[in-house]
From TrEMBL:
The keyword Acetylation does not apply. This is Glycoside hydrolase. The lineage of its organism: Eukaryota, Viridiplantae, Streptophyta, Embryophyta, Tracheophyta. The keyword Cell wall biogenesis/degradation applies. GO terms for molecular function: polygalacturonase activity. It comes from Parasponia andersonii. It is found in: Secreted, Cell wall.
Length: 156
């Protein structure tokens, strides 16, 4: 299945026995002063599933608070204190440029039980609109890089 839209992917794992998410494409979009740009979010304590084969390409972030984010601990209130069991893999960020209204422009918080795998960033260039450079945070992800990358992403 392929979708051509500007949107977030989530709340994966909120309900039992959800089907896998595969083959999502988001391209040629501009995000203007939004809270989130490219976001994948999953709930903790979810039943096992996967989200794979996603391409985010030729996107512009204009003063976006969270331009690129994977949040596998999404929980507005009262959630299980367990890692997400949604396996995120084969995600490609290609030609993503623009500005972040927050210091953290790239934020990958992946599951400790099922780390994100095969996450690729190619020609990603995000600037912070405030004082200082844009930064990145990363936890439990296996990343690949190519072309220009700003900010630099180092995963733990």
């Amino acid at each position: 299945m392929s979708l051509f839209a500007c949107d977030s992917i989530g709340s994966l794992g909120k309900y039992e026995n959800e089907e896998d998410v595969r083959g999502i494409t988001v391209k040629n979009c501009t995000f203007l002063k939004t809270d989130n740009g490219i976001r994948i979010k999953t709930w903790p304590g979810s039943t096992p599933s996967q989200a794979t084969g996603m391409i985010f390409q030729d996107l512009i972030m204009d003063n976006v608070r969270n331009p690129i984010i994977i949040d596998q601990g999404y929980c507005p209130s009262g959630c299980k204190k367990q890692p997400s069991r949604v396996k995120i893999s084969n995600v490609h960020y290609i030609n993503i440029r623009g500005t972040s209204s927050s210091e953290v422009a790239v934020d990958f918080m992946c599951s400790s039980q099922f780390p994100c795998d095969n996450i690729h960033l190619y020609n990603v260039n995000q600037k912070h609109t405030g004082n200082g450079p844009a930064t990145a945070t990363c936890l439990n992800a296996r990343l690949g890089y190519g072309g220009l990358l700003s900010p630099r992403v180092t995963c733990h």
